[in-house]
Amino acid sequence: MFRAQDSEVFAPAAAASARPAFGVRSAGAPMGTPAAAVSADRADPASGWAVDLAQDIGSRRWYRGMATLILLIGLALACWPDLSALEAAPASRVDAVAAGQFRSLGLSAARPMAPPSALPAHPALRQVAFVAERTQIERSAELPAGDSIGRLLQRAGVSGSDAARASELIAGAVPLDRIAPGTRFSLVLGPRPAPGQPRQLERATLRARIDLALAVTRSGGGLTLQRQAIPVDTTPVRIRGQVGSSLYRSARAAGVPPSAIQQYLAALDSHLSLEGDIGPDDAFDLVFAYKRAATGESEAGELLYAGLERATPQGRRPVLELLRWGQDGGFYSAETLSRPSYVQTGPGLLMPVNGHVTSLYGQRFHPILGYTRMHAGVDFGAAWGSPIVATADGVVSYAGYHGGHGMYVRLEHGGSLGTGYGHMSRIMVWPGQRVRAGEVIGLVGSSGLSTGPHLHYEMYRDGQTVDPLGTRFAAVTRQVDPRELGAFRTRLAQLKALQPGALLASGVRAVSQLAMR
């Protein structure tokens, strides 16, 4: 049987052709490997270079492949690069000449190099008791934040009496807290009254304000102050530009200072939503105070005007024109200022906002949620940013975000009576604050579940909501100051008459990036 099987395996090709080729395999070949493939592999001259260690294990060919593999691994290890750290170069020696030069440039130059007895004798050398100091030295110092002028002068080497006198003279011209940190002082110090004592102050100059330079000088044995007024151009700067992808970045690229942009965004935030009401094709328009001195210095001031123009198929149209006005420094529009204020002339509650009723108390179909539910208040339609006032004296029990009410304020008026004010754009009170009837507690907005700017007004009795319109409101009279409104419109027209672009700190005329059409 063994010989028959063996003769079958090594039979001539003619006999092997009578059986399927895949049934004949060599020793060590995987099952199913065609005999022709095995023969072709062994007949290939290149197959001897690529030894398969999984075949013919223990044969001379297998051992030759194993030896080759071990040899290649050894060569790889022998060629392994050295990954150790590079050694530093040895320190170079410094000769006596170079060491002497280094010492002369260091602090040791102020100390004697050798005792007088060690100096070589020479007819041209003469020992002196001391070396005379310079009679005057010039120094420059910068005022750090939170520091005082007196301490700054003393650190610079000025005597305490002169530093105190100089601070007193400067304070007589400008309040010391108005001198900005970073102000540079140019100092000239005189001789010392005695060895080891601080020097006298001969002269100190500084730029106290953009329009005022001060100089403290020694005259007749004492210090005096000299003032120099500097001409300053105070024409405001107007800059317009397209909002683009970012209002802040577009305004900065147009030359608006960061502080003015922050004030502009805060002014707009009181009258509209910065996220949903400003598009990339809209245009910003702002005016800020600006001072430019005849000596070249410049200083940007506060925002004076904030405007926004909406892009429409017919062109851009103004949607917001706000002017800084009044003692509170707030931003108002002509429309807001022309609204009458109301003065209570009879008993009852004040109206919370100057507007008209748009939704009553009771069951209603909610326009956002899409089903009928209780509307526990009254809605007053009003323009964005309209002032909301307390309807009666009370204490703020809640001020913050309140679910669907958005920005919400709750007042407790005593006697189990309370009122609530929702959907504000800004809250202007805080919990625990006492408010008077008619005091502004917030501004109309559209926060929370709201379809547009309005006030949601609620009234509570014993903790339960009641119809606010069932309570008597106070009789009021209208008050409008035509003179103030006229002055407001005049100032607004003056600022809008400015041409966009102005001379900024770089001295280059900054024009708007937007070609206003």
List keywords for this structure.
single chain, 10-stranded antiparallel β-sheet, 27 strands, disordered C terminus, 11 helices, disordered N terminus, Nuclear Transport Factor 2, Chain: A, 517 residues, 21% helix, Cell_wall_metabolism_enzyme, flat, alpha+beta, 6-stranded antiparallel β-sheet, signal, Glucose Permease (Domain IIA), M23ase_b-sheet_dom
Structural write-up:
With 517 residues, the chain is of the alpha+beta class. Among the domains are: 137-229, Nuclear Transport Factor 2, Chain: A; 237-335 and 497-510, Roll (Nuclear Transport Factor 2, Chain: A); 341-477, Glucose Permease (Domain IIA), CATH 2.70.70.10. Helices cover 21% and strands 31% of the residues. The strands form six sheets. Strands 13, 16, 17, 18, 19, 20, 21, 22, 23 and 24 form a ten-stranded antiparallel β-sheet that branches. Strands 6, 7, 8, 9, 10 and 11 form a six-stranded antiparallel β-sheet that branches. A five-stranded antiparallel β-sheet has the order 1-2-3-4-5, covered by helices on one side. A hairpin with a 2-residue loop joins strand 3 and strand 4. Helix 6 (149-155) packs antiparallel against helix 7 (160-173). It is flat, with a radius of gyration of 45 Å. The model is unreliable at 1-41 and 502-517 (pLDDT under 50).
